Structures are given as structure tokens and as C-alpha cells.
Input
Amino acid sequence: MNYTYFNGIPNKEILIGIQDLHKHVFEGAELEVSELKVKPQLLCCVAIDNARLAGFKLGYEMGEGKFYSWLGGVHSDYRGQGIASYLMELQHKIVQESGYKIIRTIGRNQRRAMLVLNIKYGFNVIETFISKKGTHKIILEKDL
Output
């Protein structure tokens, strides 16, 4: 498994892989390039097995000293191999080295594996809310 990252939008091949994997992980939901273009200081961490994208983790700056860990996922063929953990560690290392002091993420109770991973890596639940779509969301933060 090869792990790497891109500051900003990655090359076309990686971008298509992220979009395809996003669809796979998030029940067919599209990830538009226009959505990525507006994210300040976008960071894309990826796991690649030969030429196949196995996992991704996206995030961006949400304010001075604070980084938002936005989206991520691992293809079902690769789950249980520690890929999500490694991508999280890579993202946190880069973010901390870039001078951010806090990292935030938002999770859902339906995605328990990700909630457990976040808590395992030192995130604390700071708040909950109901989204516009009526989904219960959990805000987690970690000091870096």
C-alpha cells in the first residue's frame, strides 16, 4: 500500500479515484470538483494499492489554527487493514506540521466505526445537532 497526499486538488487520475470511491462509500453521492475548489487549504490524503485507490481522507482549513477533517472512506474490499487509521495519522501529522492547533470532524451515529476510530485517536465529543436533512450529527475535536 502506498500512502501519499496532495495540497489542493490532486491530478486527474487520483481525483477520479476519489470521486469513484466517494460514490462507493457514501451510497452513490457525487463529489463535485466545484465543491473541492472552494475549500481553503484543501488536503487530500490517499492510499493506493497498485493503481487502485483504496482509501482517501479530505480536509481543509476552517479558521485560524483550526482544520476540518471533512470526508474519508476506505473501499469495502480493503476494510479491516488499518488504512483509515494510517490515513488519519498521516492527515494529523501534516496538519500539525502546518501549524494547526485543533482538528475537528463531524460524524454520524450510523457510521460507528468512524466514531470509534475518532475517539481512539483522541477526539472528544463537543456538541451534537440535527442537520437540515434531519440527521443527528456529532461534532468531535482534538487538540494537536
Q: What stands out?
A: The helical segments are 12-25, 33-37, 83-97, 112-120. The longest helix spans residues 83-97. The chain has one domain: 2-143. The chain has a mean pLDDT of 95.
